[in-house]
Queue: 3 jobs
Job 1
Amino acid sequence: MPTIHDEILDALRHIELTHQVRVLYACESGSRAWGVPSRDSDYDVRFIYIHPSDWYLSIDEGGDVIELPVHDRLDISGWDIRKALRLFRKSNPSMLEWLQSDIVYAESGSAAERIRSLMPAVFSPRTCVQHYLNMARNNFRTELQKDAVKVKSYFYVLRPILACLWIERLGTVPPASLCALQEAILPKGELSREIERLTTRKMAGEELDLEPEAKQLLHHFIHSEIERMQTASETFGKAAAADPTTQLDILFRELLQENAQLR
């Protein structure tokens, strides 16, 4: 019987044949990449693809996104390599997270590794912190202020806050894994233990709200860090000193040459 992994690989092969592209890299995103999936979590598959080189030689730009309809817990979408590199140049947090995912479904050649090697040249602490801060603030306001809060909603606030703290303290791209963030950032104590309990409940599929004491502890941490990071985020550097465009252009051309003819 085919596994979910087999289904994902079949879907990626179907995309390659249907759209005449090559998938350079495919990974898991979302809660599974964070290491906190529920029993019924979707598989959020994200990929980077490339067309034959002639496709890019047109006065009109073609579509740069491929998406499949969500089906049977499979959510699959990807970006053309040119779009991916443009967003990478802007320190796009989603692109950085894809490259940091611990769950990789497909990797063609060394494209992902070569893109990854340029991460220090594109990483903008301020861009990423402001992205994660906005995510945490918006999710805190829309999800955690309800009368009954689902367990999974806390992770859409906690992970971006921990990502902000990682950037603040370590100055590098944060990992996708919530556990890695937590171990590096939070000291052992009641808050860390409460997040571990929350993780256990989410992975078990529990959706009930937290007890008042746990809720108060988490809400205090979340609120205080959002308030603090709003001020601290202005002190982060915007970007690396050197413009990475030349390096990315070279990589783009190399990948086009390597994939000039798709078979």
Note: The chain has two domains: 4-117+243-258, 125-235.
Job 2
Amino acid sequence: MKPIYVIGHRNPDTDSICSAIAYAHLKHLKGENAVPARCGQVNAETKFALDYFKMECPLLVSDFYPRVKDIAIEKTVVVHQHDTLRRLGEIMREYDLKSVPVTDSQGVLVGIVTVSDLAQRYFQELGMQDLADMRVRYRDIIHAVDGKVLTGDTPDKFIEGAVKIAAGSVDTIKERVKNNDIVLVGDRHEATLLVCLEQDISCLVITGEGNVPDSVINKGKERNIYVMTTPYDTYTAARLVNQCVPVRRIMHESPVTFKPLQLLNDIKETMHSTNYRNYPVVENGKLIGLVSRDSLHVEKERVILVDHNERSQAVEGIEDVKIIEIIDHHRLGGIQTSEPIYTHQEPVGCTATIIANMYRRRGFDIPREIAGLLLSAIISDTVLFKSPTCTDYDKETAERLAKIAEVNIEEYGLEMLKAGSGIGDMTPAEIVKNDMKEFVIGDYRIMVSQISVMDTKEVMDLEDELIASMKNICEKDSFDMSLVMVTNIIEEATTLLFAGSPKTLIAEAFGKGADGTHIFLPGVMSRKKQIIPPLSEAVKQIKPE
């Protein structure tokens, strides 16, 4: 069975990453195949925690849109571009195929050939002399007519002359048969066979049963001419020789192909606009297999959401998965599921608090490294217990985890927060997108980012660039407003940058003038408790611009 993905929100913070790891581990203890995942890069603070406790970063999942690789790709036999039509027919008959991919000697797809292509070739009135220009080898002739070679030893040599049927008088044969021709003859009279050889042909195919005179065999050896017999009559042998045409002469050279990472929605559109039975799947030019309209059903990925429950914050493609659980500590955000699921939400400061106590209630010990990550998440979300979101339950859980993790909460917490504070070499665009979450409040679509610092000035020195980037995001991604919380963890205060409209929403929510591009909010540290609720109330009071 496919694994269960445990994943947090976009632009993941420490809680989102660490809770995914811890809950996936708890699922493993219960015998379930769970994989921790993330939908974004880890920040400096989270990296510090992962490195400190020697834990790997979760699997990066950019989206859950179903792709070609997620459906049944059928393995198939192939033909080489130089294989004959007879070989193609044998393969189609043996495996009951309607189409066959064509590859070169390196396994690279060069075309595809169908039953209708083969039928069309059969009904074409092409003269046998056409084979002279098709790079047919003598071994192809031998194979096609089930030939018994009496003389000749260069099977890989290409045919140079035309293919003729020797019939009629000796004079007629002399007139029609030319140098290097391949001659089919049903007349076993010695004189007829010898006169054919005397024309310096390259190959003599004697049809029907019976013996070949020694004089003919000797003449063939003397002139270095292929002489072979076939059990088929001349008419049948002629048809079989015509099947020596290489597959490349009738194949479609530019078939519609798909790649493993292509979205199913995209290939469905392509299939709708074309009418092929099968479509090759290739990677780096090499054939992987075939897909058809009948193979488009895909088993949905099973996903557990942690630290969020709003569609706008979830990984792209969430509508194409089967959500089986939600573990969160935020407001209900309206994600819809097709059937009842297990949800666990508590009004605490951190998702990790909930998960840590799930271990205890279910009778599982928490390993040191998992305890360390859970503790890191609580410290991060509560800003070392200074955030108004912090509860006594968070503190009690953190103290218990610190003992297991063998760290001093205050010392480790300050070290971790310091590692994650500041902007380092982040660009204005990266600062604006740091820990970014999207909210739909009333009729407004608002993004709220947050960056924790110990020196507000280093961020505010970039105010003009930040506002420009925020306006760009509003325009590009159709947000009404963009807010960036610059939270000083030492001063326990936030400078709130804002762009977009209506600015009256900011004034109404926080009771401050909104003529500029930022306001100072002492004591504000929590997006969840101190930014979103006032905005939600303010929306009710103002009229849309």
Note: The two ends are 52 Å apart (CA to CA).
Job 3
Amino acid sequence: DELRADRLDGVLDREHRIRQITAGGNVRLRSRAEHTAVEIASESLTLSFTERQDVSRAIARGSVVARFRDRAEEQELRGPRLDVILASSHGALVPHFARAEGGRVSLMIRDGSRDRRVVERQVEADRLEAFFRTGTRALQRLRASGNVRVEIPPTPSAKTAERTTIWAQEAELMFDGEEDRVTTGRASGDVRVEVEPMEASAARSRRMTMSATLFIEFDPKTHGIARLLQSGKFRYMEGDRRAESERAIYEADSGWIRLRGGAPTVWDARGRTRAEEVDVNPREERSVARGRVVTTVLPREAMARTLPFAERDAPIFIAADRLEVDHRARRARYTGAVRAWQQDTYLAAEELELDEADRTLLARGRVRSFLFRAPRAEGALTEAVPIFVSAARLIYREAERKIVYEGEVSLQRGAQRLLAESLTAFVRPDAAEIERALAERKVVLTDPERRAYAERATYDAAGERIVLEGSPARLEDDRQGVRQQGARLTFLDRGDTVLVEGSEGARRVKTVRTIPRGKQ
């Protein structure tokens, strides 16, 4: 052991044994043994000795720097004041307890045992207390209080390079003394966790999470963070994305942050989603919501234009059992009892896929919709007639304002009903009104006491005209007792007038009149 200073004062007991040494000015204390060392540098130092002349305590003041080395790990304490309880082990000094306080203090933990690279973890606080494993210089527990800051750099063997910084009022780290590694950690009081991607090519921005408490699990192999468990009014921020819940679990290996409790909610400039469970993955730019999912799409955003709703100043709501979002590809997939609505118009299905980049929508499974109306006739006092459509599948392309229904299509317009295998509807860009429509394959048009059959039907809203074509198209009118067929049937004046045409215009039209019994 070695002690150097500009001035040394000693106190002896009755047996003339040294019980205390006070050193001042450029103080340096060194105690070395195989693979271990204790070094203290300060402006002043007071050493206390046992009856066996072993150093039992060291109190250092003024720009204190203390280093404790054990194998490949080194701890460096800095602060205005340091109090160390020491013991002797195999002829060398070993720390038992150390406390740094009196202002801003810090502890640097350097670990050079992995791939010969030095990894530095830093803890800053108003007060630090370090507990060492008995008989060694290996840390067992570290307690920090008062404006705590813990910095955890990326480890060489970690999957992603991220620097994690933790702020809190209280923090504690637990160590495995035999393997010289940190195992768990806790923090409380205004906890804030900041994660910064270190790759030069990383497109992700810095993310921040906040909560009342934090529990940390470290990976025994990489020595980096394995899991973060935050509880108490959890909040998440990254760019314009936000999230909140009662608690959250971050899994470093997969990159998922799992929000639980307190109606987890995520939002950005485009909209908001709430569910029973929400998972977000900033690394992969993905998110998943489960259980009573409700999304609010803000008006005039790109996602709103992907949906077949007309109002530009009203929000759109989507409810489902599950939601999966690929933020990078700008795609969203809702599944399980999906219902999207805006004011009184709606779209329901078992599955709904939105592609914001292509501005397209795909709905599958028991599709039901009220997306447009038949326009009101000029001068008419009645309101525009709502049109309800059901099908197995729906495709919407915003650029064309075209809605395609496929598979067992059923359209209801007042008392009139149309069945077909396919229906393409073109809607006005500024109103929920249909302009024209095309129905194909196995077309059946019915209203009270009248039925028409064709392979193709077109609807023109401006002229209030429906044209049925087939080989041949035919009409059955129970009210008039008439059966008519031709290459083309044209319904005019809202169906009150029917023009029947053959393949050569109005010629070769077949009409059969049914005469009721008793009138022969």
Note: Residues 302-306 form the longest helix (5 residues).
